[in-house]
Amino acid sequence: MAGSSAYEFARASYRQGLLTRRQLVAGAWANVRFRLLGSTDAGTDALRAGVAEMIRDVRVRDLQRLGPDVLAGILPRIYPQMLRVAYEHQDAGRPVYIVTAAAHEVAELLAHVLTFDGGVGARSEIHDGIYTGRPEGPFTYREGKAEAIRELAAAEGFDLAASYAYSDSESDLPMLRAVGNPVAVNPDAELARVAREEGWDVLRFERLGRRLKVAATALAGAAIGGAGSFAVRRARAASEPKPPARTRWLR
Predict the structure, then answer these.
(1) What does pLDDT average to in each consecutive run of 10 residues of the chain (251 residues)?
(2) Which of 58, 139, 144, 170 falls between 20 and 30 A from 123, CA-CA?
(3) In total, how many domains does the chain have?
């Protein structure tokens, strides 16, 4: 998608009174710093703590009720070309999952609407239907995304060496390197460099003018996180020959 799914989640949370204006601005600034300077272990830990604190004492039902507002912001930003790629994977027998730093509930909801096979997001501990503010499982950002898909692959019997991962951000390099078929989609500068050096496929869905507009919008009001996706092949399936690296423009 163009932009950040986590931003749409934060915006919907603010509208429903689950997030203060100060928290929204702080999240936007954190995202700008991450994009310009990269992340550190300390920064990632602080980010995770901030997300957990944001939903502490919030009912799970209240978070789920953000769904329509979140989807209203996300769905128009999804590239139809990427959906076609995902559905081609499904038709070839490969389950497709969304992997995002946004809340796990948001990932599952979006996966359901898009008829994907599942969603993987940041999980938080729940007690009596209320979030405790404590994380549960890996924080699905940077190495946490790779850890999360390894756990999923182990549970479901997927062969990551025969699987595909898609992302536009260098922050997803651990996830991309965890599979046998990484693909950069409208990559940022660092991801484009790595993809070029390592011979990965590159997909581009838009021209420069549109990309600059999206980038300006993201810097003006983006919140934390991004979204990637991956399609998996079950462990019993034979690996396919990897196509030569190339850049493809899809419209």
Answers:
(1) 74 76 61 51 59 78 85 89 96 95 86 95 90 85 93 96 95 96 94 96 71 45 47 48 46 45
(2) 170
(3) 1
Q: Are 226 and 5 in contact (CB under 8 A)?
A: yes
Phi, psi (5° rounding) for residue 121?
-140, -170
Distance separating alpha carbons of residues 69 and 204, to the nearest angstrom:
28
* DSSP code, position 77: G
Q: In sequence order, what are the residues at sequence separation of 6 or more whose Cβ sits closer than 8 angstroms to the Cβ of residue 229?
A: 82, 86, 96, 97, 98, 99, 116, 165, 166, 167
Nearest residue to 249 via CA among 193, 205, 196, 197: 205
Compute the distance between CA of residue 208 and CA of residue 227 in angstroms, rounded to an integer: 21
Whether the Cβ atoms of residue 153 and residue 99 lie closer than 8 Å to each other:
no
CA 16/CA 23 separation, integer angstroms: 14
Question: For residue 46, what are the contacts with CB-CB under 8 A and spacing of at least 6?
Answer: none
Whole-prediction pTM value?
0.74
CA distance 2 to 77: 5
Domain ranges, residue 93: 5-249
Phi and psi, residue 35, nearest 5°:
-70, -40
- At 11, is the secondary structure helix, strand, or coil? helix
